[in-house]
Design brief:
Layout lengths: L2 H15 L1 E10 L10 E13 L12 E12 L5 E11 L3 H27 L1
Antiparallel strand pairs: 1-4, 2-3, 3-4
C-alpha cells in the first residue's frame, strides 16, 4: 500500500482537532500491506498561543491562534512502527478554548468508558 495512504490516518486525526498543518515530516520505515490493520497514535508535544495576522483567512474572527506541534506513530498488527511523523501547525482558536474543548472531550470519553464499568460492578 502506498505510504501516503497510511499517513492519511494522521490527517483524519488532525481534521478532527481542527489542526492546519504547516509542516508534515514523514519517515516511512516499513511497508504496509493491503488488508493489514494499522494503528495511529498522535501525541501533542507542544501547545502555545500566538497572534495571527492571517486569522481571518483561517475563518476566525479573533486574532489569536494555537500553535501545535505533535508526533505520530503508525504501528502494524505486529506492533512494529511503520511510519513516524513530526508535524507543526495551528488550530484556529485561542489556547484557552482549545484546552477547554479538550478537557470536555476527555470527560465525555471517560464518562462513556467508566459508566459501563460502574454498572457491571454494582
Amino acid at each position: 500500500m502506498h505510504g501516503l495512504l497510511s499517513t492519511s490516518l494522521c490527517t483524519a486525526i488532525g481534521g478532527a482537532l481542527g489542526f492546519l498543518a504547516r509542516r508534515f515530516d514523514m519517515q516511512m520505515l516499513s511497508p504496509v500491506f493491503t488488508g493489514e490493520a494499522v494503528t495511529c497514535t498522535f501525541t501533542v508535544t507542544e501547545l502555545s498561543e500566538a497572534s495571527s495576522p492571517g486569522a481571518a483567512r483561517l475563518g476566525q474572527t479573533a486574532d489569536r491562534v494555537t500553535r501545535c506541534e505533535g508526533t505520530a506513530e503508525l504501528t502494524n498488527e505486529q506492533g512494529h512502527v511503520v511510519v513516524r511523523v513530526l508535524t507543526r501547525g495551528v488550530i484556529a482558536k485561542p489556547l484557552a478554548q482549545v484546552l477547554a474543548e479538550s478537557l470536555a472531550g476527555t470527560q465525555a470519553m471517560l464518562s462513556k468508558a467508566v459508566t459501563p464499568l460502574m454498572r457491571s460492578t454494582l
